[in-house]
């Protein structure tokens, strides 16, 4: 009897439970009435339920009776949060999602210890999703970032050798180290720990179809969430898991400027592998003749990326990797005249000209070991290799604890073979002959084409030392009566790096606590060697074989058969270093109310640089390396002297940041933040500033103070995000690269420590008056100033007797425009979509002396896209539609070894017709793209 009663009770309870299992049917559409797939639905409190999705209709089954909060999110649309009650009855719900025009509801993982939506975050953040990235021409990382508000980007040199900075925090972001304050990241970790001349993170990053999203954080909280990069974080996030087999293939072909071709293929594929395993892989290969005219392929190569993900009930772990093998070059400047309205000089062209050494192959003796040599071909540019592997893990633990750890090992090689400088050197300038390293190359000098061997010009320079002009001895002439002041630039960099970040999080009732450790270890080396190159100063530069052929005397060769002279005599650097970066951080995100959030974080960082530089001296042997007194080109090679200058410096600092966010409504929030950050010196401090001298002191830590107040709001037809900011940078060490004409040596001037400040407003906005039309407007208005600034004037010699210091305090910071913006119009109609973007760059001071201004310029980009079938899309991208001739950079007067800061107002007044070096923006280019998704 008892058994029967128990069985009956069990059956009744089970039947009641079955009866109380309900279903929810949810139909999700956009404002056009189209069903939306890929929505994310959550019920709180969490219950075990199954979900079935069919073309925008979501069926949630096995829902017990109770009260729930339903949350529905979809990328590009505003979230839905609604209280529902289930009581023995199925629910049918229907939602029309409003456009989230600025993606303010998108969850951000960069710059936040715990993921937050852009609206909830008290930081200034921008996002570019895959559809945004696909509308940008593949001309490098800086080209992508120019579409982000608050950013100054200089992509005039090409894919690498670029400059990127925010909010006037720019002083040490030089041409050859343009990411000084910025952390360029891939999947949450820095691409590289180190920077120095010609070694920056953009060398090792190529955007392609494997990237699904860019998160860009400017200033503020980056002081406590990144490694030694208080200016900003730009994190490119790779494709994640796919719930079904699928992928995409893109074929691209383009024409740039003077019929220079581009060919490229991108592909990606992903799939579940069963038992909660997911796989994704992809990459690209390209062949690019370049945006300017060269006689060699400007870029070629590609990469392969992959990730393998395993999920469990408490989280996931992901194994990922990248293989990059890529060659690209960088453009140097061209000559201009007219300081008030620069125009091309010497027959050059701002759109098509690339004043660089032509392609040739040679071997130059290695100053470190004179029995060996280095292959040199200026067509190679920088050959970048990066082999990286990482493991990313996240797990929920007991008692509301969670752990996340991301660790990556990479082996990097960057081998530069290119030319440096392209200055005008008159045949009346003794430098044209004495830079060869020869003792007295005066008399009858003959210039021959290295390719044909034919004589181009024969001159007599015997009067130049007494101020007389050279004389042509035959009808042959050198273009512009000059040669190019240029050098071979061989630079071999290696780095093995291990980077890791561990975060422990604890959720309390109103607090979200995060604690963590970050570490980075790098073993790096760099070798630099420079030799003079005899090149015509012409729109089509040619290498010159040069000899001294005085009557009744043996012929003396001033260059080898390839036109290279003064083997290894212009530059020598051989350095190595071990870098250790350790950090501990803590952050509390405190919900004071359901609308008001306060967060405060601290970061202690310790950076140790331990390494050494080789001292050097000219190789002393009668007749030079080959012991032949008639070959002057090998007489001055620089070799190690045997002395080594060591350094071992540790930089300890604490950074902190506090922010407050007030969510006044579901779609509007105000925030404010104060941050105090630090920037330890990079390796260039030791490698550049202590050439052949003892390293007698460590560098100064730059201090950065930032205040920002912002508004984010998403209404029905318009979304706006604006931030008022103030940034102050202190202890800026600045030094100029100089050339001593007296002894043909290159040196850096003594370091001056300066400060700057910038007030400004950055904004993003989208206006959508109708469903098919959008107007996008973002930009920056700022006032960048030198707070206190001095410049060391070396007067053209390494001798300090005639040196002076000039005060430029209160001047406008160079290269920081007071106004820059992007304005885009997008129009979509069924299978057709289009956009046009206006990029405006305001006038910029070209140096700290404010002696010369780079004019404002505008660039227009156009995009057209047509969806041929459900799976196939064709698109056309045109960048710089009207071939604008904007000037992005300034290198100083047109003289070998000159620098931008050497040009003063008095010099311009005294030399109104002088030529100078500028770097124009990249010219027109078009790309036709065919995409197939499956």
From TrEMBL:
PROSITE patterns: TONB_DEPENDENT_REC_3. One of its GO terms (molecular function) is siderophore uptake transmembrane transporter activity. Residues 119-233 form the TonB-dependent receptor plug domain. GO terms for cellular component: cell outer membrane. InterPro entries: Beta-barrel_TonB, Beta-barrel_TonB_sf, CarboxyPept-like_regulatory, Plug_dom, Plug_dom_sf, TonB-dep_rcpt-like. Pfam families: Plug (PF07715), TonB_dep_Rec_b-barrel (PF00593). It is a multi-pass membrane protein. Keywords: Cell outer membrane, Ion transport, Iron, Iron transport, Membrane, Receptor, Signal, TonB box, Transmembrane, Transmembrane beta strand, Transport. It comes from Aestuariibaculum suncheonense. This is TonB-dependent receptor. It comes from the Bacteria. Residues 328-881 form the TonB-dependent receptor-like beta-barrel domain. Belongs to the TonB-dependent receptor family. It is found in: Cell outer membrane.
């Amino acid at each position: 009897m008892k058994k029967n009663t128990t069985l009956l009770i069990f059956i009744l309870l089970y039947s009641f439970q079955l009866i109380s299992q309900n279903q929810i049917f949810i139909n999700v559409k956009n404002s056009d009435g189209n069903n939306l797939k890929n929505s994310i639905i959550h019920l709180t409190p969490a219950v075990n339920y199954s979900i079935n999705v069919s073309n925008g209709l979501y069926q949630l089954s096995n829902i017990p009776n109770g009260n729930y909060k339903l949350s529905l999110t979809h990328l590009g649309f505003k979230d839905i949060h609604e209280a529902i009650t289930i009581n023995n009855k199925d629910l049918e719900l229907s939602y029309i999602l409003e456009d989230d025009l600025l993606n303010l509801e998108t969850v951000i993982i960069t710059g936040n210890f715990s993921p937050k939506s852009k609206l909830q975050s008290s930081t200034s953040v921008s996002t570019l999703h895959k559809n945004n990235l696909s509308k940008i021409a593949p001309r490098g990382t800086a080209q992508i970032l120019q579409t982000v508000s608050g950013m100054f980007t200089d992509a005039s040199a090409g894919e690498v050798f670029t400059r990127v900075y925010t909010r006037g925090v720019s002083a040490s972001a030089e041409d050859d180290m343009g990411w000084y304050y910025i952390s360029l990241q891939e999947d949450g970790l820095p691409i590289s720990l180190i920077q120095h001349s010609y070694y920056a993170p953009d060398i090792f990053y190529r955007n392609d179809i494997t990237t699904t999203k860019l998160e860009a954080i400017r200033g503020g909280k980056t002081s406590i969430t990144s490694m030694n990069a208080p200016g900003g974080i730009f994190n490119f996030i790779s494709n994640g898991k796919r719930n079904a087999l699928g992928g995409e293939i893109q074929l691209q072909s383009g024409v740039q400027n003077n019929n220079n071709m581009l060919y490229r293929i991108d592909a990606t594929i992903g799939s579940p592998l069963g038992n909660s395993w997911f796989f994704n892989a992809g990459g690209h290969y390209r062949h690019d003749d370049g945006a300017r005219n060269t006689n060699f392929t400007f870029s070629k190569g590609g990469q392969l990326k992959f990730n393998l993900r395993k999920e469990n009930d408490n989280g996931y772990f992901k194994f990922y990797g990248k293989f990059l093998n890529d060659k690209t070059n960088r453009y140097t400047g061209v000559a201009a005249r007219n300081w008030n309205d620069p125009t091309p000089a010497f027959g050059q062209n701002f759109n098509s000209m690339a004043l660089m050494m032509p392609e040739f192959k040679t071997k130059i003796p290695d100053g470190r070991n004179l029995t060996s040599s280095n292959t040199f071909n200026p067509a190679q540019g920088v050959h970048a290799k990066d082999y990286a592997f990482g493991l990313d893990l996240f797990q929920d633990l007991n008692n509301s604890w969670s752990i996340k750890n991301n660790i990556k090992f990479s082996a990097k090689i960057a081998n530069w073979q290119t030319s440096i400088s392209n200055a005008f050197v008159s045949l009346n300038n003794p430098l044209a002959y004495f830079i060869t390293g020869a003792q007295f190359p005066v008399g009858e000098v003959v210039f021959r084409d290295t390719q044909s061997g034919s004589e181009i010009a024969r001159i007599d320079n015997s009067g130049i030392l007494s101020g007389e002009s050279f004389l042509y001895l035959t009808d042959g002439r050198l273009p512009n009566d000059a040669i190019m002041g240029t050098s071979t630039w061989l630079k071999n960099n290696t780095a093995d790096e291990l980077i890791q970040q561990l975060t422990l999080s604890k959720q309390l009732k109103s607090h979200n606590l995060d604690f963590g450790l970050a570490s980075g270890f790098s073993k790096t080396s760099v070798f630099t060697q420079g030799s003079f190159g005899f090149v015509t100063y012409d729109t089509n530069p040619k290498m010159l074989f040069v000899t001294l052929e005085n009557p009744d005397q043996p012929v003396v060769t001033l260059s080898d058969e390839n036109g290279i002279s003064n083997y290894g005599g212009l530059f020598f650097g051989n350095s190595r270093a071990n870098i250790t970066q350790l950090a501990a951080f803590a952050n509390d995100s405190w919900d004071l109310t359901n609308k008001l959030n306060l967060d405060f974080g601290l970061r202690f960082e310790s950076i140790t640089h331990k390494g050494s530089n080789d001292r050097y001296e000219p190789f002393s042997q009668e007749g030079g390396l080959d012991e032949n007194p008639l070959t002057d080109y090998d007489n001055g090679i620089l070799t190690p002297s045997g002395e080594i200058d060591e350094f071992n410096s540790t930089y300890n600092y604490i950074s902190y940041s506090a922010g407050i966010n007030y969510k006044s409504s579901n779609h509007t929030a105000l925030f404010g933040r104060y941050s105090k950050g630090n920037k330890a010196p990079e390796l260039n401090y030791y490698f550049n500033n202590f050439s052949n001298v003892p390293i007698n002191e460590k560098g100064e830590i730059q201090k950065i103070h930032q205040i920002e107040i912002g508004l984010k709001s998403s209404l029905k037809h318009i979304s706006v995000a604006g931030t008022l900011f103030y940034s102050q940078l202190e202890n800026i060490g600045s030094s100029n690269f100089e050339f001593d004409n007296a002894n043909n040596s290159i040196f850096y001037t003594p370091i001056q420590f300066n400060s700057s400040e910038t007030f400004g407003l950055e904004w993003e906005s989208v206006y959508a008056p109708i469903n098919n039309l959008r107007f996008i407007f973002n930009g920056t208005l700022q006032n960048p100033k030198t707070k206190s600034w001095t410049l060391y004037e070396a007067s053209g010699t390494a001798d300090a007797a005639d040196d002076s210091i000039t005060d430029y305090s209160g001047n406008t910071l160079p290269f920081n425009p007071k106004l820059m913006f992007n304005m885009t119009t997008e129009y979509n109609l069924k299978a057709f979509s289009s956009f046009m973007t206006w990029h405006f760059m305001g006038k910029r001071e070209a140096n700290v002396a404010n002696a010369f201004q780079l004019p404002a310029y505008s660039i227009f980009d156009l995009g057209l896209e047509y969806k041929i079938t459900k799976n196939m899309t064709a698109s056309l991208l045109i960048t710089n539609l009207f071939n604008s001739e904007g000037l992005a950079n300034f290198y100083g007067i047109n003289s070998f070894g000159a620098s931008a800061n050497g040009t003063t107002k008095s010099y311009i007044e005294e030399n109104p017709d002088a030529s100078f070096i500028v770097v124009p923006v990249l010219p027109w280019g078009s790309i036709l793209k065919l995409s197939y998704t499956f």
